[in-house]
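Entry for the shared binder. Reason: the reviewer on the internal report wants the predicted structure included alongside the sequence.
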Amino acid sequence: MKRNINSRHFEQSEKSNMLRSSLLRLINKFLTLLTMTIILFFFACTAPIDIETDDSPPVVVIYGVLTDELKYQEVKVSRSSPYFDNEPNSGISGAYVTVRSSDNTVYPFLESDSIPGLYYSQSEFGAQIGMDYFLTVEVDFNIDGIMDKYEAETTILPVPAIDSLTIEPVEMFGHKNHILYVHAQDPPEKNFYLFNVFHNDSLLTQKLADLPVSDDELFNDQYIKGDIYFFDDISEWEKDTEETRKRSVYLQPGDKIDLQLGLISQGYFDFINQCRSGKNGENPLFGGPASNIATNISNGGVGYFAGYAISRKSIVFE
């Protein structure tokens, strides 16, 4: 009897060992497949950006955005700094900057008295929907007595109207937050959006790292309710650390939120996303992007010249 019991026990042990071995092989295969998937996903996400980090020779960085607001429009002309340099790009003085519209109206730009390389339109104007605008910058970049010419163009696209804004509460991990939603109808063609958010007239989206942009791949030709910005409730201020307070925006009753919606080109959309991925959200107005990021500047220049009309809406937090 003992031999029979031991024999059955041995057979059961063998079966258990074989089962464990099979499970281990399956687990190893799964882990190997998972690792390969993660690696492939990583390279698929990072390969198109291909940021160059070597100290390549400096190039002209031109960045300007026209809007339909009646104001002094701006164009920044600077010299690119090394990729890992913490210093902002140095502005280039003495450039000739003009913008011409497709109806042949010419807008000269003059350099700021206080900020080298920052050029303002000589008079206030607002870009018009449906109009093309052509930027020309002439500057002796190499200081060889020869003016180099850089050109770019942009078209002002019609922007859909914002129907309304809502602010809705949400609790995450015991923390009270509020989400700003925009309600609007997306046109049928493929579109790219930019959102500027103001809190009590203070712009929250000045840096590219904070600037919400979106395509309409998931909601093309649909009526949308899109989440735009996360706020913290003022009741959380006392509990938050000093570091958390610095990066948070707190809402309290009576606060006013303004949203500006712009319909932008795919090129400008790609430029913003690549700048955010490639240089930690550096605002190109004060520090240029890496030299291989998308650009519409000719003659080897980098940066971007864009334009868009604005749809606006405000809400007061109750």
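Summary line for the report: DSSP finds three helices and 18 strands in the chain.
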